[in-house]
Amino acid sequence: MAFTGFHAAGIDLLQLNRLQNSKEFYDEHKDEIKRLVVQPFHELIAQMTPAMLEIDPQFVVVPSHMVSRVRRDTRYTKDKTLYRANMWMFFRRPRQERESVPCYYFEIHPEFWGFGCWGAWGRGEMEALREMVLHEDQLFLAAREAVAACPQMHLDGELYKRPKFPDANPAYQDWLNRKEIGVDFRESGDFSPVLDGSFAGPMLETMQRLAPFYRFLLAAKERADAARREAVQ
C-alpha cells in the first residue's frame, strides 16, 4: 500500500500501551498497533527505499530489520518498562550486535517527531573525524557545505566542557568538540505533516542533500576500523 501518513490513534495507543505496561493489554491490542503504527512505517520505507539506495546501495531495506520494536530491550537498562511510547526506523548498513554504524533515522514520539543522520559512536571514530576536520579533508568540507545547505537541520551531539583544539579554526569548533555527532530536525508543535504524510517528500529530499555528511561519517568509521586492525597486526 502507498504511504499516506501515520494515525493519531496509533500514536495515542502507543502511549496508552506504555502507561498500561501490561503484556495482557499489549496482546489484546497487538494487531491494532501493527495496523496503525508498524504498517505505516513499512509503507514509508517502501516509498523511500529507491532514493535511499542511491545514497548507499548497502543499506538494509528489509522493514522488519529497520523499525524499532514496541517491546523494549530491558537487558542493559535500569528502566524495566516493558513497552515504548515512541517508534523509529533506521536506514543503515548491516552491522554486528551493538556495533556503531552511521545511519539516517525517522522517529515519532508523543511529544515530537523528527529525523536526521548520526554516527561516530564507535571507538576511535570521533578521533578519525577530527583528523579530517583539522586537515580540511574534502569529505569534511563537503559535509559542512551539505549541512549548511539544510538550515532546518542543526548539528548535535554531547559537547565536551573544554575545547579539545582551542587554536583550531573557530568555524570548526562546533564539529571538533563533540563526543558523537549528528544532524537533527525536530518538531514538537505541528504533527499535521506526520498525520497526512506530507513530511515524507521534504524529509527524503533533505536526506539526499545530507549524503555528503553521511559519507563523512562513514569514512570516519572506516578509518577508525582500519586503524584498529593495523594496531592488532
Word description of this protein:
The protein has helices at residues 8-20, 23-55, 125-134, 138-148, 173-176, 192-196, 200-209, 211-232, and strands at 87-92, 103-109, 112-119, 154-156, 181-187. It is α+β, with helices and mostly antiparallel strands and 233 residues long. A 5-stranded antiparallel β-sheet has the order 1-2-3-5-4, covered by helices on one side. The model has no long low-confidence stretch (mean pLDDT 94).
Keywords for this entry:
233 residues, alpha+beta, five-stranded antiparallel sheet, 46% helix, globular
Structural class of the helices, strands and pairings?
alpha+beta
Largest sheet: 5 strands, antiparallel
Distance between the termini: 51 Å
Question: Mean pLDDT across all residues, rounded?
Answer: 94
Number of helices: 8
Rounded to an integer in angstroms, the radius of gyration calculated over CA atoms is 19 Å
- Largest sheet, order of strands side by side? 1-2-3-5-4
Task: State the helicity in percent bands.
Answer: 40-55%
Q: Count of DSSP E strands?
A: 5
Unreliable spans? none
Structural shape: globular
Order of helices and strands: HHEEEHHEHEHHH
Percent of residues in β-strands: 5-15%
What assembly state would you assign to the polypeptide chains in this entry? single chain
Helix-strand layout with pairing:
Layout: H1 8-20, H2 23-55, E1 87-92, E2 103-109, E3 112-119, H3 125-134, H4 138-148, E4 154-156, H5 173-176, E5 181-187, H6 192-196, H7 200-209, H8 211-232
Antiparallel strand pairs: 1-2, 2-3, 3-5, 4-5
